[in-house]
Amino acid sequence: MENDTYTLKSKPIPLNASYDVIVVGGGPAGCTAAAAAAREGARTLLVEATGSLGGMGTSGLVPAWCPFSDKEKMVYRGLAAKVFNTLKAQMPHVPEDAMDWVPIEPEKLRRVYDDLVTESGAHILFLTSLADVDRDDHGNITTLLLLNKSGLQAFRAAVYIDCTGDGDVAAWAGAEYQMGDEATGELQPATHCFILGNVDDYAYVNGPKLHAENPHSPIHEVVRSGEYPGIPDTHLCNNMVAPRAVGFNAGHLWGIDNTNAFSVSGALVEGRKMAAAYRDMLAAVHPAAFGNAVVMSTGTLIGTRESRRITGDYVLTAEDYISRRSFDDEICRNSYFIDVHGTQKEQQSGAGSSQSITLYGPGESHGIPYRCLTPRGLRNVLVAGRSISCDRRVLGSVRVMPVCLAMGEAAGLAAALAAAQTGGDVHAVDVPLLRARLREEGGYLPDNQAETARERLQ
């Protein structure tokens, strides 16, 4: 029966209490969190469920970075810039000054993250899943239970950083959270990214722009005709990620809940079918480029845009975004537009998102306060990545990889400070010191919006 339970028999399991900071989730936020914590001298462990670091940019095969600039300058700096520039230098077909929608070659990015984390001195546990969380009555996580080929193990640290993308650590420890549309509970659709190989580079580069923002893209007629039932809508982001290889962030999968293992499993099966359908469709409508193409790879992670939003000491809102708000405790700036992918009806009608907000002008951005990273009711836990404390609309902006890199560095530095100075209390971190250290490491933290405006005039 669905509500049946099973009680484990009591037995001892190995305990490792040698770390100051444990980061769960090795996506962009987790990698910079681990590197920053270790850089501060904290004994740091990074736990990753898959066999590689990088999350959506590697295992998820997202084919390009969202913009790193505010259309004038790079705003995601520090470790974020280091990751971005290190990868870009290894991709000869990318201009040196490119900052926006830069392609990602996933295998090279895996190595960039490996080096970032290991050279900082942090340890990595691959192929290791979070199994459970224990906490005390004072809001402290006391132990993480992890599962891998070594069996079930207990790990203990002074501070824990939740970079799972779904807020698993915080939610399992009892943190408050929101999820989905406030009225309907509906989640943004997911996408299963893939790479087509054996593409004719010249025909691809010089052929029609496939992205749906081009009104002459063949994808519009494909969807109108109904001749390709495996193609759900006009969403067709694509980038040349390597010679003869084009990565696709294409199509939508609705009703996918990334906190439900059966839901994700079904999405992976359906996503692989969709990748094959896109290959066949592109071979038919653009044979010069894709006539001999093959599905080279599909993501081992589903491209999830939305799941839990952990409630923190401050909830970032779309109004903060619209007002370009600055905060005394901000730990990074963000300039990506609010990008909420719509319902199935909206996407298939061509309406896209019903919650889009006008893009920022050149030089404009908003702050993300440290308080969005500190879960209410938990003492020794930080959250970084798409599950920070925010409303649903602004999640459409802060969920992307560049800002996750910046948030992760701040969380890692704060965790190290909490472990060393506050007995693990992340709410008591010296925020001016945190901000000063971020600046010393290259972070973009103008004192206020007036300073940002002055920079635009210089």
UniProtKB/TrEMBL annotation:
The keyword RNA-binding does not apply. Keywords: 4Fe-4S, Iron, Iron-sulfur, Metal-binding, Oxidoreductase. SUPFAM superfamilies: FAD/NAD(P)-binding domain. It holds the Pfam family FAD_oxidored. InterPro entries: FAD/NAD-bd_sf, HdrA-like. This is FAD-dependent oxidoreductase.
